[in-house]
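PROTOCOL LOG
Step 1. Enter all chains and additional molecules of the complex.
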Amino acid sequence: MGERAHDVVVIGAGAPGEVIAGRLGEAGLDVAVVEERLVGGECSFYACMPSKALLRPGELLAEAHRVPGVPAGDGLDVDAVLARRDDVIHGLDDSSMVPWLEERGVTLVRGHGRLDGERRVRVGEDVLVAERAVVVATGSAATIPPVPGLVDARPWTNIEATTAKRAPGRLFVLGGGVVGVEMAQAWSSLGSRVTLAHRVDRLIEREEPFASEQVADALRSGGVDVRLETSVTSVARNGAVRIELDVGETVEADEILVAIGRTPRTADVGLESVGLEPGKHVEVDGSLRVPGRDWLYAVGDVNGRALLTHMGKYQARLAADAILGKDVRLRSDGARSPRVIFTDPQVGAVGLTLAAAQEAGIAARAVDVETSGNAGGSFVGRGAPGTARLVVDEERRIVVGATITGAEVAEALHAATIAVVGEVTLDELWHAVPAFPTRSELWLRLLESYGL
Ligand SMILES: Cc1cc2nc3c(=O)[nH]c(=O)nc-3n(C[C@H](O)[C@H](O)[C@H](O)COP(=O)(O)OP(=O)(O)OC[C@H]3O[C@@H](n4cnc5c(N)ncnc54)[C@H](O)[C@@H]3O)c2cc1C
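Step 2. Run joint prediction.
Step 3. Record the structure below.
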């Protein structure tokens, strides 16, 4: 057993943990990062990257069918798609991620890290003493609800859903949030017969209602059996999985994927040793610091503020600057986080929905146009469903929310993010001229619809 001193100790090397360690290492600090599984975390191996690798071929095939003259076949080469997915996740080997840390002088410590009192992190027999700060970046894991029989039925979580070696014949997806709808469409495009059950009356219910409808329509037309206002009451596996629904029906599947939300990975991180409650999010203030403990920070999913890689990385950049003594403040957070659902049609959104703006007491008005209703739409996403909406604060004449649905709209979202975060006025936006013939002319149509 030994004690080693560092300036900063980071627990967890997911993307936010890597970013904060790398940024502080570049600034000349002595940083150690503790990782018990894979450097790169869920996003690189079991979430963002493999899920997009599974979705992209189906999306491309759908787009090929929309463009006359492209010889698009009927189905995908499933083995090739899965092989490409394996390349994207480096065969679950993180050795290509390690040099990035080494180049920044960061010490990687393999093992399970636990807080052991103020500024101390225990890894097995060793204690890392952090002279300046400890950063908790331990992420989150899939929430498994207490449904009778579910755990014994060995359900899939995002881990199996993104790394499976073959498409199950029948897949039951529990949950119609982002992970549920993306994985339902991905595996359906790869040949699985998919049933998706969602507890409330629309999918991805935090987004605009038209986004929910278009995604549900797309899933259904791709063959997914979408059940709304449906819960699972019990599950049993006897070879196949039998799933009892509260509507009095039983569905049989080969696998059941649980995608109802995320639980912070804090049950065994030693939070109790510094007076915090295990199993809960680590709550932070606007500089990512834990109130009352000026040496303790939390970034990424573990603080529960925005469960997205880019937001965790943003928090990591700010927290690094705070540790370096700068005055920082989270300006983008919660609903201000840009978010993309990579189904076909895609959903890109930033800021408030119309309903959320109204609930927040904003004098809000929405304007809508068809995403592909311009010349650029003749070439991309032709005939695909899609709506672009701006939510305008009528008093301040600024955009407080934007949602764009349609084929391949993810890259269009950043313009909306700049408008929302920068609080650009409509009168300024009027002079930001979109190129012809790009689908970005939807901005012009939106401003015209508003009355400019
Ligand atoms: C299927 C799916 C698809 C997604 N797609 C997207 C997407 O397209 N875009 C997007 O922005 N977000 C996406 N997300 C969300 C994204 O994956 C998370 O927001 C992101 O991974 C959070 O990073 P993190 O570092 O906070 O947590 P994690 O990625 O979970 O990393 C935490 C790391 O800490 C390690 N760790 C935990 N406890 C300890 C300990 N005690 N000691 C040592 N190490 C420890 C873990 O092993 C892990 O490597 C998706 C999520 C899922 C489930």
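Step 4. Note key features.
The chain has a mean pLDDT of 97.
Residues 11-17, 34-38, 41-43, 47-48, 51, 112-113, 137-140, 158, 162, 179, 265, 269, 300-302, 307-310, 312 surround flavin-adenine dinucleotide (CB under 6 Å).
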